[in-house]
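Help wanted!
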Amino acid sequence: MVIRTIAINAFKEAIRDKILYNLLIFTLIVIAASVLLGRLTIGQDQRVIKDVGLAAMSLFGVLIATFVGTSLVHKEIGKKTIYTIISKPIHRYEFILGKYCGLLLTIFVNLVIMTVVLLLVLMLHSLLFSHQLVSGPEPIGYVSLLKAIALIFLELMLITSVAILFSTISSGSSSLSVFFTLAVYVIGHLTVDLKELGAASKSSLIKGLSSFCYYILPNLDNFNIRAEMVRDLSVSGRFISYAIVYGMLYMAAVLLISILSMERKEFA
Amino acid sequence: MKGRNPRLKTQDSRLKTQDSRFSLRKPSVLCLVSCVLCLVIIGVAFMQGQLDRIKPSRERLEEKLIYIPTGRFLRTAALGFDAVLADLLWTRAVVYFGGHFLTDRDYRWLYSLLDATTTLDPKNILAYRFGGSLLALEENDVEKSIAILKKGIRNNPDEDWRLYFLLGFNYFYFLEDYAEAAEYLEKASRMPDHPKYLPKLAAKMYAKAEKIDTAIEFLEEMYQQHDDQNVKAAIAERITILVAKKQTRSLEHAAEKYKETYGKYPSDLKLLTRAGLIKELPVYPGGQYVIDPDTGRVDWVSESSPQWP
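Answered by r_m:
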């Protein structure tokens, strides 16, 4: 109950911060892609729109998760509103989970609207321009698109938990938490290279260290099936379900650490 | 405390019960949570292992889709991190070659990777040498091998004699353009640190000496130039094939002589040693030489082949 109240408050706060303005930019990008880029690539218009749309979804999502996620806890401390919250019979884990769920709700609503915009642009595009193609209209492939978006959401859930973790650890500056979160995002997409680098090394110490880092750091490539989905290539259901379990477990670990860190914090 | 508001009292007790029910500050709870955390982290690592196990099919997909932008575009996109990006691509190229050398030997993206690497970092001599050797020997794409070597020479004209050497080999062995090959070898022999026999090799080019012998000499030098075990293995395999070719030729020659004496080709190569035409039968690593008694053609079969006697 408490978690729900905090979550709804966090969601309202994000909306009040005019977070949804990013949707405007997103819409502009997708439409621009459909009109400009689509025309340049013969017969691959739909693919380009999907590629650009999904990439923009992921990018905007990561930015929201990072900037809003790190500020949610910081703001409470900065404005000293945290005192009124922790003096109430609320557990700190409820506070963290509430904030987390609130932000997830924001991101979810954002993604849903983006998905609707993307689908609308795709449908409109296929209606307006398909007669120019000899091969007829390309199928939009809703299921594949939704699969890719679902995994984007999972990736964003993970990044959000990381943002919350850093905001509870570094109470001093919000920009530091932003920096750390973005660093985790970049590292998350480079872990495969880390492993390959280790495998190519002759030193067993480096090999061990790199494979340790590989298994401990988040591997965000597990959630990236955008390229396959856009090109209608199959990704096994087993892979997707394993990726979901992986994401959930990782998120649970990060949230547990956030809660532990919040629990040890002294607010004087 | 006697006259305390009863409402405050109940709130107080609610607070207490909530705290006693579950508090992370309690050592026992903290211990439990830490254990759960450890288990979850182990679970994460386990799931990553599972994902990697079913990944191969996915990686192959990715490679089909792989698109490496041109180096010039990457240089703009790298925002000043050209060197780091070049290093990353270079590592990818080495790992890419190693992975495919041990499996399907399909290297269709090697050139793009090396081209992008060397545009971002034009001084990476090793990348030119790597591409120069392997694109021709393994991928059988002499054009691309020559292209990358010429790019290397353009960017580093006085840096490494091996670039000229490899170019000379390509012209000699694959294109059979002996004049061009000799010219590059001569250039190589004017560079510092070149091996002593290089001028001799250039002279052989001009004299159009026996191709297989010269090629073996070239490849043996190439073998010395590389440190990567996979590259060495690829070159060694090539040398073995050339040596085998050379030996089949001399065996066929001996078989002809045998026919001149006995009126037919030998049914077994051992007969050549018994007839005193060769001192001993040459050994083919991992296989042996066989003769076709009807045509006199000598071939080599490896143990894994179905023709193995």
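OP: Thanks! One thing I noticed: Chain A has one domain: 2-189+224-264.
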